[in-house]
Amino acid sequence: MFSAIDICKTYRPRGGVPVEALRGVTLRFGERGMVFILGKSGSGKSTLLHILGGLDDADAGYLEIDGKTTQAFSRKDFDDYRNEYVGFVFQEYNLLPTFTVRENLSIALELQGKSASEEQIAAALAKVGLAGMEKRKPTELSGGQRQRVAIARAMIKEPEMILADEPTGALDEETGQSVLKLLKQLSEEKLVIVVSHDRDFAERFGDRIIELADGAVVRDTGGRA
Ligand code: ADP
Ligand code: MG
């Protein structure tokens, strides 16, 4: 249903030495389940996640999305894919600090040319354990609550999959666990791909663990996801 085929990416910083961040990564994913992409800092995890989500282009290789290949994708096709198919969750939440929780969620849909009803927002917040928090601002929430808002924002678009880059990186152990429990719950219906360097979390929550080292897959437990 969703695959990445032979993805290569080299960064060429101006005046610097080129960095081969991904060296031919091929992965096939199922429709649901919790997949961890594990690896040390600098192993290429974020680069891979960004390419999987259409946030960045590969130098070589392509994605297959529901039988369509991105080889013939226009810029607009990529924009549509990123907006409609993928929900993103980042380590630093990336919420708009001066807007309320309600506004943070409704803007996500407005970017797709849709509007969010009060019911939709209430349901999305209930799903992440934040019922009634519509009027709060991100500064009035704990780190764990902010990440839950970010997850609700990703989910309200009803994406086919969630891509999360170190979603527990800024949280303490216990709060991190509860965020992963929530993502695990969502993975019963959707594909959830979590980038992490935390092996314990990966082994506890992952249906499948893919390990990267130096831009290549060095381990893949496979499994239903
Ligand atoms: P990870 O998320 O596993 O820490 P990244 O995908 O961020 O790894 O980075 C992979 C490699 O690519 C690292 O060596 C990193 O320094 C390099 N890199 C990442 N982004 C850039 C960039 N914009 N310009 C140059 N090098 C980069
Ligand atoms: Mg990273």
What features would you describe in this structure?
The chain is α/β, with parallel strands linked by helices. It has one domain: P-loop containing nucleotide triphosphate hydrolases (Rossmann fold), CATH 3.40.50.300. Helices cover 33% and strands 28% of the residues. The chain has a six-stranded mixed β-sheet, sandwiched between helices. Strands 2-1-4-5 form a four-stranded antiparallel β-sheet, with helices on one face. Helix 6 links the parallel strand 7 and strand 8. Helix 3 runs parallel beside helix 5, helix 4 crosses helix 5 and helix 5 packs parallel to helix 6. The termini are close together. The model has no long low-confidence stretch (mean pLDDT 95). The protein binds adenosine-5'-diphosphate and magnesium ion. Adenosine-5'-diphosphate binds next to strand 2 and helix 1. The site of adenosine-5'-diphosphate has 12 residues, from strand 2 and helix 1.
Summarize the structure.
This protein has helices at residues 45-52, 75-85, 101-110, 118-127, 143-156, 173-186, 199-205, and strands at residues 2-11, 19-29, 33-38, 60-65, 68-69, 86-90, 161-165, 191-196, 208-213, 216-220. It is of the alpha/beta class and 225 residues long. Helix 6 (173-186) links the parallel strand 7 and strand 8.
